[in-house]
Amino acid sequence: MRVFFTGGSGKAGRHAIPVLQKAGHEVVNIDRVPSGLPDTKELLIDLCDSGQVMGAMTQWADFDELDKAPQPYDAVVHFAAVPRILIGTDGECFRQNTLSTYNVIEAAVKLGIKKIIFASSETTYGVCFAAGELKPDYVPVDEEHPTVPHDSYAMSKVCNEATARSFQARSGADIYGLRINNVIEPHEYAEMFPDFVADPSLRRRNIFAYIDARDLGHMVDCCLKTDGLGYEVFNVSNDDSSVGIPSAQVIDEFYKGVPVKTEMGGHDTFYSNAKAKKLVGFAPKHGWRDEV
Asked: What pTM value is reported for the model?
């Protein structure tokens, strides 16, 4: 597929794009800064400008395309965003994330693109950036868990899900939202996870879970290859927790009294990926326990 990929210069995108390219997709990176990825076409634009978004989605992507008419895109993957709170102001985070998502999905729908995948977030469940400690309503957290966040970043993601659902209802396109857990790059296992083993409480705000950036790319590929679901949201995580202690001990130390919705054993993730496995064939391959 020819894929219009926003945010490919970011932490997740730099790993997801090579996975998609290896799977045979032609990917054009759309960002404000270059990615540095080899053999990757790029257009540098402001996604908060609707005219630039429509222009980028309808023009040539590089010189080798000039001998024929601009080629349409088969799919849009929208990862670009202010990646968290406390980078700039809360209001600007909300503005950029909601406006850019509206612009990207609107342009895709108007151009008749039938597959749109966008990055939502674990933060929609409220736990990650809450003021003080907020425990989930139950564990493991699945897509039915309430999404009532306290912060502007997560608010923007909840709004983006509503935007995507509305565009899907009007267009009939397949629009899939990925509630992505804490993204970990391969080199970060050795750098970060020894501390998580020594002090599991460091992972409380991330629901004791994670997603390998390469497995996130695999999830995008699974979604590109799965048609006919309409609008869906998926948790995206690896199969195991991000701490050394067993899941039963995590429950005893951090979630005492929190209902356990699905039986958990070993080091099972607290951020359920069962829906992604069932509906799109997600099968994560990487894990920190192989690296640390």
From this structure: 0.98
